């Protein structure tokens, strides 16, 4: 019997990749950078399965280019805003993702960014590396206390709740804005449900945990920065376009907020030479919140599980468009 044809758009951790290679006639994109959209359009022709990453645009045109035999798209990420799931559903293509497994790793990292920003860790390291450390300074790099402060969560999904668990260990008051979740649920994980305006104006730290949708794109922009305390630290581990980068640059430069710590940016990667990279009060890392060895390994095996199920026509264990099953 002919093996199913699979295109894998980047080398993923070996545990998942080895299993994927056994599942079919696999073509692996070996470059460090993702294939361009045009290359992807060519590569998917005739594929039964596609393994992709959040850096790949997977739209209706691409699904049509692949052909009617495409049964499954298996993405190594929990977020899938790069995939047109509606178009996939219309074509009967199952979309897999990797929920749950990266919750705690990402929450750890959101808290790492929060603490690093509060206590100016990146600036301190730069200060030492650049040879400025001559003595103990009584006012050197004074930051903000985390314990006992107020954390504002925008979004109360799995990762937001996991951040709240960490915050409660620091005796923080936790405010939460999530119009899609009942107040009882928010109260149950130790937060106070309130409006976005209250979260922004009362919090010392604001951490974003919403998916990227038409509604959340640029939900944090110039007017939201004006609502925030001038001492506020913004943490973003969700998706870059949730924050208007240009507005953030001005807010940081003009002292409307104190600091931003970002795992994600718009655009991504942030171009070398972007003015935001000149700011001492902005810490940017390259979208690594889920990047622990254990988590990325588990994500890769979930990708293989989804692909295997999809190729066999079975229900995906971690499906992003369960509506295809009726
Ligand atoms: C995701 O999974 O959506 C993260 O952004 C990367 O792990």
Write the layout of secondary structure elements.
Layout: E1 5-8, H1 14-23, E2 25-28, H2 37-43, E3 49-52, H3 60-66, E4 72-75, H4 85-90, E5 94-96, H5 103-118, H6 121-129, E6 150-154, H7 158-169, E7 173-177, H8 183-188, E8 192-193, H9 196-202, E9 205-208, H10 222-227, E10 233-236, H11 245-253, E11 259-262, E12 282-284, H12 293-312
Parallel strand pairs: 1-2, 1-3, 3-4, 4-5, 6-7, 6-9, 7-8, 9-10, 10-11, 11-12
The structure holds (2R)-2,3-dihydroxypropanoic acid (DGY).
Residues 54, 77-79, 102, 290 line the site of (2R)-2,3-dihydroxypropanoic acid.
Enumerate the spans where pLDDT stays under 50 for 5 or more consecutive residues: none
Average pLDDT confidence is 98
Number of strands: 12
CATH fold-level topology of the largest domain: Rossmann fold
Distance, first to last CA: 30 Å
Strand order of the largest sheet: 8-7-6-9-10-11-12
Descriptive report:
This protein has 326 residues and is α/β, with parallel strands linked by helices. The protein folds into 2 domains: 5-101 and 293-325, 3-Layer(aba) Sandwich (Rossmann fold); 103-284, Rossmann fold (3-Layer(aba) Sandwich), CATH 3.40.50.720. It has 12 helices and 12 strands. It has helices at residues 14-23, 37-43, 60-66, 85-90, 103-118, 121-129, 158-169, 183-188, 196-202, 222-227, 245-253, 293-312; strands at 5-8, 25-28, 49-52, 72-75, 94-96, 150-154, 173-177, 192-193, 205-208, 233-236, 259-262, 282-284. Strands 8-7-6-9-10-11-12 form a 7-stranded parallel β-sheet, with helices on both faces. Helix 2 packs parallel to helix 3. The longest helix has 20 residues, at 293-312. 43% of the residues are buried. (2R)-2,3-dihydroxypropanoic acid binds next to loops.
């Amino acid at each position: 019997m002919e093996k199913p044809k699979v295109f894998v758009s980047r080398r993923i951790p070996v545990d998942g990749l080895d299993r994927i290679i056994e599942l079919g006639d696999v073509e692996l994109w070996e470059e460090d950078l993702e294939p361009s959209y045009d290359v992807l359009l060519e590569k998917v022709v005739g594929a039964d399965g596609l393994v992709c990453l959040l850096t790949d645009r997977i739209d209706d045109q691409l699904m049509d280019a692949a052909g009617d035999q495409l049964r499954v798209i298996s993405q190594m990420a929990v977020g899938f805003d790069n995939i047109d799931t509606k178009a996939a559903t219309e074509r009967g293509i199952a979309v897999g993702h990797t929920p749950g497994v990266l919750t705690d790793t990402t929450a750890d990292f959101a808290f790492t960014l929060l603490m690093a920003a509060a206590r100016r860790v990146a600036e301190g390291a730069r200060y030492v590396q650049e040879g400025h450390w001559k003595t103990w300074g009584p006012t050197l790099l004074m930051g903000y206390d985390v314990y006992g402060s107020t954390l504002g969560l925008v979004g109360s999904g799995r990762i937001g709740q996991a951040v709240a668990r960490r915050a409660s260990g620091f005796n923080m008051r936790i405010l939460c804005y999530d119009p899609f979740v009942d107040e009882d649920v928010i109260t149950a994980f130790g937060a106070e449900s309130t409006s976005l305006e209250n979260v922004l104006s009362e919090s010392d730290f604001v951490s974003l945990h919403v998916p990227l949708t038409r509604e959340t794109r640029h939900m944090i922009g110039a007017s939201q920065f004006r609502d925030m305390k001038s001492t506020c630290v913004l943490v973003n581990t969700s998706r870059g376009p949730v924050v208007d980068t240009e507005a953030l640059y001005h807010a940081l430069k003009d002292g409307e907020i104190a600091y931003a710590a970002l795992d994600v940016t718009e655009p991504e990667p942030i171009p070398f030479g972007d003015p935001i990279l000149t700011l001492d009060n902005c810490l940017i890392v390259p979208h690594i919140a889920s990047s622990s060895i254990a988590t990325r390994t588990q994500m890769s095996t979930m990708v293989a599980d989804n692909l295997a199920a999809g190729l066999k026509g079975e229900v995906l264990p971690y499906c992003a468009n369960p509506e295809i099953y009726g």
